[in-house]
Design goal:
This protein is of the alpha/beta class. About 30% of the residues lie in helices and about 20% in strands. It has one domain: Alpha-Beta Barrel (Aconitase, domain 4).
Length: about 160
Amino acid sequence: MNKGKVWKYGNDVNTDVIFPGKYTYQPMEPAEMAEHAMEDLDPDFAKNVVEGDIIVAGKNFGCGSSREQAATCLKAAGIAAIIAPSFSRIFFRNAINSGLPVIELAEGTERIAAGDDVGIDFSAGVVEHDGNTYRFPPLPPEVLAILEDGGLIPHVKKVLQG
């Protein structure tokens, strides 16, 4: 069970506020991208996020442009997972490719507040919060393998090396 402190956001958090568009074409390493994570939505995020923290948001997280930096900067900032009722399909795939778990949780996100602790069991499909258990479809073994290997590229390298 992965446990972490919650950062809470609303509906339709778009990639322009996850990783500001003004940095899109500036070459940066992931650690530098993390310094700008969420800065237009939550200026305190990058200064205060801790390895293992979890984002809980409303519907349609990651909407907007297809920039993969949005997932990369959150992963580099230390976010262990994002829980939301729904995600933009492109962001969802970018997150998995980056090794950042994304959990579609149909109910319960509205009861979770900033600063709360949540636990996630990815293979069992369980989120625990304040004595409550919420279920989501468990991540398929293939997705779990990508996440465990740190993203798609490290996973493919591992598979090719046998």
